Amino acid sequence: MSLEDQAVRNNMTVKHKRAVNDNINCCENDLPCCQTSYWYQVMQATRNITRIYVFLGNPKVLVEMMNTMHALQMFDNGEYMVITVDMETYSYREAFKYLWQPEQMEKVENCEQHQKGFLNRGRSLLVVVSSPPNEARYRDFTSKVAEYNKKEPFNFTMPSILQKDGFHKYVSIYAAYLYDAVMLYARALDMLLQKYDVVTEEILHKVASNGTLIIEMLKNHTYESITGSSIKMDHNGDSEGNFSVAALKPYRYVYSTKMYNFTCDYFIRPVAGFQQGENPEYKPDCFYKPDSDSDSDSDFDCHIDWPGGRKPDDEPSCGFEHERCQSDKQQTSVIAAATLGVFLFCAGVITLSIYRKWKIEQEIEGLLWKIDPQDLHGYCNNDIISSPSKLSLVSATSYESRCGGQVFATTGQYKGVMVRIKELKFSKKKDIARDVMKEMRVLRDIRHDNINSFIGACLEPMCVLIITDYCAKGSLYVSYKYYDNYLCMPLGSTKFWAFG
Questions:
Q1: Same domain, 252 and 120
Q2: Which domain holds residue 332?
Q3: How sure is the predictor about 450, in pLDDT bands with cuts at 50, 70 and 90?
Q4: Judgement on whether residues 127 and 179 belong to the same structural domain of the protein
Q5: Total structural domains in the chain?
Q6: CA-based angle 90:92:95, to the nearest 5?
Q7: % of the chain with per-residue pLDDT over 70
Q8: Based on the domain organization, do 394 and 454 belong to the same domain?
Q9: Model's pTM, two decimal places?
C-alpha cells in the first residue's frame, strides 16, 4: 500500500504529489534539475497550496530542499513543516545528515555561523526513523555476538594492536534482525511440532521445510525483539515495525575530525515512538542516550519544540483557495463600507460639536439678545417727536413718560410691544466683558410671572440701552412714592385697631 493510499485511509487529503530527482542523478545525466534554481521553482509552485511537505528520498536532497525553503523565508513564521521518512535505524553518529552536508560543516565552526535563523529551520523538520534499540539490552547482545564470533566455527579474533587502543567492534543492527528471524522460525517450528505426539526425523524435515505453514503461524503475531521493541506481524506475515519521531532538541553536539571541529547546541533527537503490539500506541521516548557515558538526558524534555510556538495548521483557516471565507471583493466592499460609515459618523459628531459651540458663542456674543437701535420706535433719542403743542393731554402724558424726567421709566415700542428702556451712559467707549454677555444670555432665558423679562440690549459706542418688559403699574418704589397718602390711612387704621 502506497503512502498516498495510507493517507486517504486515515482521512487525510493529498493536495498534490510530485516526483523529484536527487542532485546526483540530475547532474550525472545533465538534467534540468541539476540547476540551482530547480528547488526554487518547485517551492514557488507549491508553497501556496501546501503546508506540510512529506519528503521521501536522499537526506542530501532533503538538506538542499530545506535550504531553499529557508532562503524563501518559509520557516520564519512556523507555518510550514517538513516530514521525512528514513527506513534506517536512528543513529546518533549519522543524524547530522538531516540538517547539514559534510562539506558545509567543514566551512564553519558552529551551526549559527552556517545559517542565520537555523533554529526555526531545524524545528520545522520531523524525522520518522526505525526506533533505535534499547541501549542496555542491545549492548548486552552485541557483547555476546563478539564473544561467539571468537569461537568455532567463526574464529573472528581482534588484532592485539586494536585491543590496546580500546577498539570496540561495531555490530550492525542487521545482526539483531537476523537473530529475531531465527528465533521466530524456531518458535513457529516448535509450535507446529507440539501438535505431534511423536516427532520423527521425517516429520521434522517435513515441517521444517514447509515455509507456508510456518508463515501462517507467524501471521497476526506479536513478539519482543532482541532490540527491546515490541513488533507485530500483520495479516500478511510482514513486520509492521516500530518507528520513532526525531526532532530538534537542545543538546550539545560535537563533530570532530583531524581537519575541523563543528559544534551546535541543538541536534536531532528521538522524542516519541510508535510502539506496535496488541494495542499500538504512541508514547514519549525521552531517555534515549547516544552512548553509554552520556548522563545529559536525565531531565530531557520530550515535547516537540514547534517553530512558531504551537503546532502548525495543516491548511490555512480559509482554505488554500479561500473557499471557506468570503471573496476578496466582498470583503473589500464590506471594509470600504464600514470605513465610510465610521468616517461619516465621526464627521457628523465633529460637525455637531462645532455647530453647538458656534451657536453658544453666537448667543453669548449677542445674536439673540442684541437689538438693533432701528427696531426701537417711540424712543426720544431715536424717533422724531411731534411738537408738544400739537399733542393731546393723553399724548403729552405719554411723551412725558418717554422723554420727561418722571420717575416711572423711559418707554418705547419694540416689535409693536411697549418696553422699558434703561439708558447707561459712559464717558468713553465701553467694551462688555464676556462674563456679562453670559449673564445677559441667562437673563434672557429667565421666565417668571413676578419678574419683568429681560428682552435685550442696544450697544452703542458711548451708551448701552437695556430693554425689558414694561410694567404699566410702575415699580414698587414708584407705587410707594406717589401713593403714600393712600397707604398712610389704611396703615394708621390698622395700627389704631391693633393697639386699641
A1: yes
A2: 326-365
A3: confident
A4: no
A5: 4
A6: 70
A7: 77
A8: yes
A9: 0.57
